[in-house]
Amino acid sequence: YAPWCSACQQMELAWESFAKESEHLDITVGKVDVTQEPGLSGRFFVTTLPTIYHANNGVFRRYLGSRTLEEFQNYVLERKWEAVEPVAGWKSPSSIMMHGMAGLFHLSGWIRQIHSYLTGTLGIHVWISYAIFILATLLIGLFLGL
Known about the structure:
The protein is mainly alpha-helical. The chain has two domains: 6-91, Glutaredoxin (3-Layer(aba) Sandwich); 96-145, no CATH class. It has five helices and two strands; from the N terminus they run ααββααα. Helix 1 packs across helix 3 (69-77). The termini are far apart. This is Thioredoxin-related transmembrane protein 4.
């Protein structure tokens, strides 16, 4: 979820109620703010919000049902998740490829912080910051090419 997402806000009450009921269902329910954890949004390949996953014994399934407390409970109690196709192996959050995707999301956040530091804190013009990143990219490419 993200704090600014209106669809996330609409289902928040149902999700919080589901989390409170989780002890009775013998499950764990959680939520992750993708603005605070960009690596996880990359690792789980989150393209729409809210995105819900069901994880059981290392197998991940994307929940696409209704966003109501009753449907969340039925998904678990009636074992509806068994009829859902698991996430493909290469797209699984535990795969090496998705670990790499998480790394790219962390890298982009790091680059954004450096850019903000250069332009905001040091007062460097935006285009000069871009030029620094272009130069750094070329130098790293040359170094790796050697």
